Amino acid sequence: MPKIPNEYLDLFQKKSFAHLATVMPDGSPQVTPVWVDYDGDYIVINTARGRVKERNMPLGAKVAIEIMDAENPYRYIQVRGHVAEVTEAGAREHIDQLSIKYTGKPFGPLRPGEVRVIYKIAPDKLDLH
Asked: pLDDT tens digits, residue range 90-129?
């Protein structure tokens, strides 16, 4: 499994938004902007149960993620990979961590019945620009 090169790790440490591409049941692409994290092995995103991207990402699903440097839009990384892990464990705490990174404050209260989910995406191929 390829690792994110050191010279691109800053994209995961600052407020770089990612674009997550998934595949709909009819085979058409679906793209969503997401907050993104990296744990040293996996790209980590967080969503709520019932959303389109969540339904499109069962374990093993193929996905692509593009993360652009807001300070230099010609510098970006594209990762093609697959969903290696799906868990609700720690997801509430994780969305708070992401929210603090991107907004400066915790995520806030969840909607009634909202269940957060963490997706760990294993990189299969990296394109660096």
From this structure: 999 999 999 999 999 999 999 999 999 999 999 999 999 9
Residue 21: count other Cβ atoms within 10 Å of its Cβ. 17
Residues with Cβ < 8 Å from 10, sequence gap 6 or more?
Answer: 69
| Superfamily of structural domain 6-128 | Electron Transport, Fmn-binding Protein; Chain A (2.30.110.10)
Candidates 65, 68, 61, 62; CA nearest to 17 is 68
Percent of the chain with pLDDT over 70: 100
Residues in the chain: 129
